[in-house]
User: What shape does this take?
Amino acid sequence: MEIELRRITKRFGHFAAVKDVGLHIRPGEVLGLLGENGAGKSTLMNVLCGLYAPTSGEIVIDGRPVTFAGPGEAINAGIGMVHQHFMLIPVFTVAENVVLGVEPTGRIDHLDLARARGQVRKINDAYGLEVDPDALIETLPVGVQQRVEIIKVLFRSADLVIFDEPTAVLTPQEVVEFFEIVKSLRDSGKAIVFITHKLGEIRQIADRIAVLRRGEIVGQAEHPDAVSEAELAEMMVGRPVSFDVDKKPYQPGPPMLAVKNLTVLRGNDEIAVDNVSLIVHSAEIVGIAGVQGNGQSALVEALTGLTHVSGGSVTFNGQDITQASTRERHRLGFAHIPEDRQRTGLIPAFTIAENMVLDSYYDDRFSKGPNMLWDVVNTAAAHAVVDFDVRTSSVFDAVDTLSGGNQQKLIAAREMSRDTDLLIASQPTRGLDVGSIEYIHSRIAQARDEGDGVLIVSSELDEILALSDRILVMFKGRIVAEFDGATADKGTIGLAMAGRY
Amino acid sequence: MDKETTSSTANPESRKLDSAKVRQAHVSGWILLGLAVLAAVVFGAGSEGIATFRLSRPTDPWALPNLSIPAASTNYLIAALLAFLGVRQFLRGNVRWTSLSLGSGLLLAVIAFLVWATAGKGFSLTGMLQATVVGAVPIALGGLAGVLSERVAVVNIAIEGMLLAGAFTGALVGSLLGGVGGLVAAVTVGGLFGFILAALVVTYRADQIIAGVVINLFVLGVTSYVSSQVYSEYRFLNNAPVFAPIRIPVLADLPVIGPVLFQHNLFVYGAIIMVAMATYYLFHTRLGLRARAVGEHPRAADTLGINVYRTRYINVTMAGMVAGFGGAWLTLGSVGRFDENMTNGIGYIGLAAMIFGRWHPVGALMAALIFGFANSLQQKLALLNTPIPSEFLAMAPYIATIVLVAGVVGRARAPAADGQAYVKE
Assistant: This one.
């Protein structure tokens, strides 16, 4: 199946997310679509799979123009999409998820799950996917869930498979396996679109590359070897990019945060953090690598006082703070950049100024008795906003009007403009554009150069490698490996992240 | 992974963990011990003589003899059992049985209470169980209506209003056209309110709670006005025939079981059939799978070409029809006339039954039976002249609601998208 996008434009109000985009997608070929977050990749593909109607332009399949009234019609036309956020129902089984919408039925609408299971097994065998049709989605690791999404698409006999940021949630090993699956799909004659912002991956897997910036195609390459990573990065961002973080030589100070045999339970009594011990020194960045869901979130919550510690101890500069409240820790000089900026980092409906004092409104500087000193708050917020390069016209704007990058800079401004000793940052650059990533990284490095201890949790291995002086790997709630930041090898860390070290 | 974590928790050399489950087990243990003390000191020491439970009526074809038991010693035995259950909670490895122990402990405590209240007197056990089933019908239908709409993620506070509308319409149309006509009209009007709720929350994205409350207030206002202003003048408008009981051949003659289950009118059998049909629909059909998908992850359903809005409309309308049927029971199934606010909170108890029943039709029916039991206990005990004031006894169903929803259910999981409007992109 050959697909052509002709001058596709999609506007949301006055904002054109996609402008005049033309693309050729051919069978038996992987088209890599590269672009930053917000460049319009997902919008473009949502147009192609029928979720959005294009404002103008047309989609041509095998020479015939088509229009889709909804995703159902795009599916019928042979277009399947594996979304970045999986479209799976956690409490359903694999088979139920796969057949949903095109269920095999018997008499009186009876759901024929036996047949569904058989069909899943057949696709399993054809592409070597090995997924148990009776497993509940919520019990499966993310890599397997992604295979379920692929089975879903294949079950609907798609000829074009679109992958939206498919590797964001995978371990390096899972990425390797995933690429094998993509290749076998391509070799069986499917057309593949691979959307990503990761330069290395696109050159590994794509047969052809198109780069999208601000809704427009800014460059194409007929062969991945025809362009270098630096060239691709420049096309994607619009200026030369540096991937290195400047920091002083590693000279750790005295131990600052000492965690001993820490154990944290989840609400259902599963062990989230299992007997973890670690030390963060002054002037040191410790990076915790690991696939999401291996206890990193619970560890950070325990260290910041947000969850109940079931065993072990946490000391800070010699003082036992295992049971200390969040505010006490804050007073001791903790800064915390939480993993979910929208849910735990900020109150989106509040103004920038209000968000800036969420952690210090009670301070004598900002309030007098029950009254807030808004003048002082606004002035302080304005200073911090300028200082941390938050792009906004006013501190009175609501935070949800800011881009993700600016929201994250705002959190960094709130947490780091104080005199802090320890920075705990969880997924500090998730979903940010390259410019914001550079900025946040330089700020983190600066904090460390000034003598702060820094603990970084990230599922982006590149981020961990770029920043860390020491790297710890977390797997199933345990620290399973430790590496020196300067000499660590990506492949070995990847193995440890998969529990095979 | 699950297995591994379990085994490491049970591992004796693992750290002493301050576990939520262990804490919960201990709290249950204290409750059970408290119940044991209550059973011994109040119900055991406080009762004298023989408690007589009547199992059959003299008219029954196969009569069973009465069940007579010595009150005090029975209650001491129950106290001992409760104490045993309580102590078990503090022993290691019994964490898993917490809910079951607490449930059976509560049942034992209720039995002890009954024995105490009956001591020296006679009490018709069969009559109480029969009243339990009858009282459970509107609650079960309300709960079923809740299940149908919450499974597609529409919170249905309006069940109360739909029940009331069904009761009102049933009485009015039933008075004019007879029972069957009244029933059809009640179901239709219930469905209409379901459709209105769906329109408000699905198409206009009104807040689901507010939309439901508005419907409740509207129905209450209209029906109260008509019943106080119009019915006082035209009494014939509020005089509907009542559906006669249908005796199921042979089964109806069985002792105890017969009167309790097989001598009811259309509504009781209808409720059971609807629960069975709803279970089949939700868990064994294509449309049911789609409905549940819409309740769990509407965007995923949408990407697969399932019409989220239509699914919600259909299910919420069906929920309204079920509630309309349940409401009709109040007039056409029992008293034949409509009284102001005659549902009196049954719809809300139905919602509690839905939650207690974990969003499953059969679960909701079971929960409704428990609430029906609390209700009939209260009515029958008023006849026994216990020292407890009748006002307190009237609270029993509501206390049962609170205890069950808060304590025994624990964390039941609602459909993931419950209460959220779906905005198509």
